[in-house]
Amino acid sequence: MSDLAIIGTYSVFIASYVVFALGKFPGMKIDRPGAAIIGAVLMFMTGAVRAPNALYLIHFGTVVLLFSMMLVVAHLHLAGFFDWITDLVVTRLKPRHLLPTVIFLSGLLSAFFVNDIICLVMVPFVLKATRRMGVKPIPYLLAVATASNIGSTATITGNPQNILIGSFSGIHYRDFLWHLGPVALAGLFLDWLALWWLYFRARVHDVRAEAVTDAMQIDPGALLKASLVAVLVLAGFLAGFPPPLVAAVGAAIMLITRARDPHLVYEEVDWGLLVFFIGLFLIVGGAENAGLTDRLLRFGERLNLQHLSVFTLVTAILSNLVSNVPAVMLLKSLVSRFANPHAAWLTLAMASTLAGNLTITGSVANIIVVERARKEAAIGFFDYVRIGLPVTLLTLLFGWFWLSWIQ
C-alpha cells in the first residue's frame, strides 16, 4: 500500500471509532451501524480491503451464532416464556424478594442467551412486575442492566463480545464457563449488595400505586417447543459441539412451524447489530492490512499489557471509550501473541463485559434498558453512575483476582 492509502485507511479507522465512542457522528444522524457500513465501504476505496478477500475478513461463525441466538430468544419471547415467568414471580413472591429475583433471573438468562436480547424482554417484565406489586421500578431496572452484564460474563453466548472472543480464541464452552462462571456468580451477589445498600437499607420499599393485573399472552404449544429447543441448544453447547452449528440447528428447528408468521420473528432480530458486526470486521481487517497490528504490538510491549492487571485496566478504559465490541475487535490482534493467550482471552472477556456497567453508554444492554423504560421511569446519567461505579470496581477487582489465582 502507498503512504497515501495507509494514511487514508488509518483516518477511516479513527473516524469510525470516534463514532463508536460518541454513538453518532457530530452534526449528522449517523449511528454506530451506519458508521460501520460507511467505514467498511471506505476501506474498499482506500484499497485496504479488496473484494476477492473481503469475505475472509468476516468471521461468519460469529455472525451465525449471534443471529441464531436472536431467533431462539425471539421464539421464546413470542411464545410467552417471559410473560409466564412474570406471572410466576408476581403471584408467588413478596416485594422484598423482587430485587434478588430480578438480579439472578437477569444474570442467569444473560449467561446463556445474548444479554442485549434479554434486556429487551426483561424491561417489560420488570415494569409489569413493579406495577402489579406497587413499587417504584428504577432500582429493579438498574438491576436488569447491571446483572445482565455481569451474568453474561459467564459464557461464550452471554454477549456479543464474548461471541467474538469464543470464535477467535477457540476456547471451549465448558472451559469458558468453568473459568468465568464463578466471576459472574460472585458479581451478582456483589450487585445485590450494592443495590440493597443504595436503595433498600433505610426502608424496604416505596409503594407507588395500587397493584394491577395484566392478561398474559402464552401459547402453551409454542412455549413447550421453544423451551425444549432452548434446552437442547444449551445441552449442545455444554457437550462441546461447535456453538454456531448448535445455535443454527436450534434456530432452524424453531422456524419449522404451521402457526406463526415468520415475519413476527424477524422483527425481533436486531439487524443493526448484525450489520455493525460485519462492518466492524471489515474496518478492523482493513486497518490490520495497513499495519495496525504491528503498531499495536509495539505499543502493547511498552505498556506491559501481558500483565493481567494492566491488561484488565486498559481493556476496561478502552471499553468505556469506544464500547466493548469495538474494543475487543481492536485488542484481539494482541492477545493471540501474548505468552499466555488463554488467560488473556478470558481477561479480555471479563474486563470488557464488567466495564460496561460503569456508565449508561458503557454497553448496549444499558442503553436498551434506559431507552425502553424512558416513558415510565427516566434513568439519568448520575442515577446510573451511582450504582455503576461501585459495581464495576468491585466486580473487576474480583474478576482480576480470580483469574490471577486460577491460572
Describe this entry's structure for a reader.
The protein is built from 20 helices and no strands. The protein is an all-alpha fold and 407 residues long.
SSE layout:
Elements: H1 3-22, H2 32-46, H3 51-57, H4 60-78, H5 81-92, H6 98-112, H7 115-133, H8 138-152, H9 160-169, H10 173-200, H11 220-239, H12 243-255, H13 262-266, H14 271-289, H15 292-303, H16 308-322, H17 324-335, H18 341-354, H19 364-373, H20 381-406
Helix pairs in contact: 1-2, 1-14, 2-14, 4-9, 4-11, 4-12, 5-7, 6-7, 6-8, 6-10, 7-8, 7-19, 8-10, 8-19, 9-17, 9-18, 10-20, 11-12, 14-17, 16-17, 16-18, 17-18, 18-20
Brief synopsis:
It contains 20 helices and no strands. It has helices spanning 3-22, 32-46, 51-57, 60-78, 81-92, 98-112, 115-133, 138-152, 160-169, 173-200, 220-239, 243-255, 262-266, 271-289, 292-303, 308-322, 324-335, 341-354, 364-373, 381-406.
Mean pLDDT: 85
Strand content is: under 5%
Helix segment tally: 20
Unreliable spans = 206-213
Overall 3D form = globular
Helix content: over 70%
Assembly classification:
single chain
Radius of gyration from the CA trace? 21 Å
